[in-house]
Specification:
This protein has 27 helices and 17 strands. The protein is an alpha/beta fold. The protein folds into four domains: 151 residues, no CATH class; 146 residues, Histidine kinase-like ATPase, C-terminal domain (Heat Shock Protein 90, 2-Layer Sandwich), CATH 3.30.565.10; 124 residues, Rossmann fold; 120 residues, Rossmann fold. Strands 1, 2, 3, 4, 5, 6 and 7 form a seven-stranded mixed β-sheet that branches. A hairpin with a 5-residue loop joins β6 and β7. α4 runs antiparallel to α5 and α6 runs antiparallel to α8. One of its GO terms (molecular function) is phosphorelay sensor kinase activity.
Length: 745
Amino acid sequence: MEFLIYFAQCSAIIVTYVFLLRWIYPFFERLPVKMQPILSGLIFTIIGVVIMQKPLDLTHGLHMDVRHVSIILSGVFGGPISVLVTTVCIGLYRLSMGGELLTPLGSLVVTALISVAAYRIKQRRGEAFDKYMWLFGFAIGLQITLWFYFFSPDESSSYYMKHFAATFTLFHAVAIPLYYSLISREIKRFWAEETLVQYKDHLEELITARTSELVANNAQLIQAKKAAEEANRAKGEFLANMSHEIRTPINAVIGLSYLLQRTELESMQKQYVEKTLISAKNLNTLVNDILDFSKIESKKVTLEQVDFDLYEVLSQISNLISVRAYDKGLKLHFSIHHEVPQMLVGDPFRLSQVLLNHSNNAVKFTEEGEVLFVVSVARRSERGITLKFTVTDTGIGITEEQQKRLFHEFSQADMSTTRKYGGTGLGLVISKNLVELMGGTIGVVSEAGQGSSFTFTAKFGHSTGAIYSMHTAKALKYLRVLLVCEDSDMRLVLKGQLEQFQFIVTVAESGEDVIELVYTQGSRFDLVILDWKPTNEAAIPLAERIKHEFGGAVQVIVLVNAYHDPELTRSLHSNVIEKVLYYPISHSSLFNELMGLFQEHFFTSQAAAALEGEQAGAFAALSQARILIVEDNEINQLVIKEILHGKHINVEVAENGAEAVERVKQHPFDVILMDLQMPVMDGYEATRRIRDIPYAMHTPIIAMTADAMKGVEEQVLEAGMDFYVTKPFDPMQVFSILQRFIQRK
């Protein structure tokens, strides 16, 4: 029991040291490295001296205490210098106490050596050293017992061996690892807290630096945002100005072409005007996309879903590229599978844009031969139909290496191609994006010098729209037609088109079949349509034989040609052929051509009167209406004025907003067409002043401007105008808008 009390007293001293270690160790770590072992030795010396003040027994000249604990701890934690300091100091203190000295001092030296060995092992083993600390404690207790047994006087030795040998050895084996663990954990806790403090300080430094960086970045972002907003504003103003400047001449081209169509023109002149209108409208649609700010920013194009005539699209493609093709002596050939529906639901302009890009490339890179257009059905389902379009040429071709660079921005197959043929290479990229928007894919098959074949697919919906007017179709109802065509697909397509007009169609594949039908069977036909190919020289003699031998049985003979070559038409010297039609032909074009051919035969006066009455009454409300045009451009003034005069409208013109206000003050108008950007006074200010005139508060004011930027319509309505029309405009659209407002008024 007395020994346990002594053990508790020693433990209290160590615990006190551990408690004080929280303040001692930080000071210890701030000392120079050379001073740290000395301080450690002095600290453990103090612990040893304090322990020696409470000996367990003083009998027979013994001074029984556990000073060796301070020696081993000094060595393990402080190293050789520390244990040297502690051993020397405690040894001197023991010398000063007198008595038997060999065993006390000898055991101190051995304990010091054991502690140095323990320090070396700790340096090498690290954490594993903790498991073996009890062995060093046991060794110290054992060596003390051996010193007493061999080197102490007999009386002291006997007394020690009887009362303390076992307890001293056990004490050191248990107490030393326990005290080591307490001190070691406190030191680890200190380092953990110190590491956390360092991390915290470092984190605070990082946060401070990051905060400063973010503040600087935010300042840069604010400046960049302001610069971007200014750039966007400048870009918007530039696009608005470009929109106005580009649309103004386009409006003049479309308007003057419309007026030109109303004059007496030759057949070829009408075709030129039609092609001019088609080109101008396509250019206008492209300008719309280029100048649409939201589409430029978001890189998105919205596809329309409208009913359209596929043959009309193909006919327009032929019209647009035929001049260049004919100048180079190329032939255009169209082949359409008979299962391809004529009426579809989709975006005809985007389809035309892709086809036009491929056909322009085909004509551009082909010096001789032909360009072939093939349309077939790829897939069909209840939801819609996927068509496959192929444009094949006999041009320069593309190598396999060059094909890898296709469909990339501003890239052509070869830079020499750009120098020779021009172009940016952007067309195929646009085509690829449009085809993907239409749910299809695009590809090419080509070899150098062997021509190219570009193929793409596109999805369309099933159309339920009417192909032609039932009212006008009655004039040619039950027309008897003989169709002579060797090409099975072409024969089925044309037969289907003619039967939709409620014609009675008889089909023949060769001239012999025709003679059999007309001569042997005595059949009579109002119309004979012959397939005319460049290689089929028998078509003209057959037509002349039919007309001469069976003239009473045949009224009209027409040639249909899938090779769009006007030289064939010019080289045609036969007065029996009344018309040459180019395949494919839209329903409306085919019907109009037939109406023109048979007008004097079948188009009755009652039908003509009904049609004229229908056309005359379409915009009857516009007759004698008083309209003020506010426009500063002379060409636009002329276009709008002449278009409106065609509907017997009374037109007055003001060149700017100030003049418009004065004219309105003189007398009222039924409608005011107001330009927005004008000198002296713009359309916005003019509208606000006109609204201040009592009798003009509710006069319809329609904005007509070439500015197609987003936000203009909102500004127009906010200024007090009633509607917004973008130049270039469709005359029929303007007539409809004017009639709606005049009738409402």
